Amino acid sequence: MQHPHTDIFSALRGSILATGMSDDQVRELEKYATLQTFDPGQTLVAIKDPSLHLLLIVSGKCEVWAAGDDLLYSLSENSLVGEVSFVDGEKRSASVTAVTACDAIRFERKVLDQMSLAVSNHLLRNVCVVVCRKLRSTTKVVEFIVGLQD
Fold first, then answer.
1. What is the largest CA-CA distance in the chain?
2. Which residues contact 80 (CB under 8 A, 6 or more apart)?
3. Helix or strand (DSSP H, E) at 44
4. Residue 90: phi, psi to the nearest 5?
C-alpha cells in the first residue's frame, strides 16, 4: 500500500540500506520495495516465523522481544527488522511489536535474485553492517554481565 505521505525513494536514500549507492541504484532498489503500515500493538515479525522479508522502519517505534518475553531493545526510524532471517534464510530469532503506529519499507528475500548484482551486493553489505553492529553491541553486554559475575 503506497502512502501519499511517504516518499519511498527519499526514505531509502537517507537510510543505511542505500549507503554507497548511486541515485540510479536507489531507484532500482525502490522498484522492489513496498510500504507496510503497522498499528500499535501489531506484530511486525514473530519469533520462529519462517518469513524472510526485511523491514526498514520509516516512522514509529517498535520493540524487539526474546522468547522469554524479555525486552531486548527498541527500534525507531532507519532501523532494520528481520535482517538476520533476510540474510541467512532461517526462522525469526525474536519478535518485533509496534509501540506506536509504524510505517516500514518491505523487501522480500527473493528480490535479491531479481536485482542487479551491484544493487544486491550493496544491499547485502549494508544489511551485514547492521548485523555486525548488533553483534558487537550484544558482545559488550555479555562481557559486562560476565564481568559482574566474576
1. 55
2. 16, 17, 54, 55, 56, 57, 127, 130
3. strand 43-45
4. -100, 170
Whole-Å CA distances, 32 to 17, 20, 28, 97: 13, 18, 7, 24
List the one residue out of 35, 34, 17, 36 whose CA is nearest residue 119.
17
Find the Cα–Cα–Cα–Cα dihedral 131, 74, 123, 11, rounded to 10°. -160
DSSP category for residue 91: P
Buried b (16+ CB within 10 A) or exposed e, 47-76: eeeeebbbbbbbbbbbbbbeeeeeebeebe
Instruction: Please name the residues in contact with 77: beta carbons below 8 A apart, sequence gap of 6 or more.
Output: 57, 58, 59, 60
Q: Which of 83, 62, 64 is nearest to 17 (CA)?
A: 83
Residue 44 neighbours by CB distance under 10 Å:
24
Q: pLDDT tens, position by position, for the chain (150 residues)?
A: 444 446 999 999 999 999 999 999 999 999 999 999 999 999 999 999 999 999 999 999 999 998 878 888 899 999 999 999 999 999 999 999 999 999 999 999 999 999 999 999 999 999 999 999 988 887 887 777 777 666
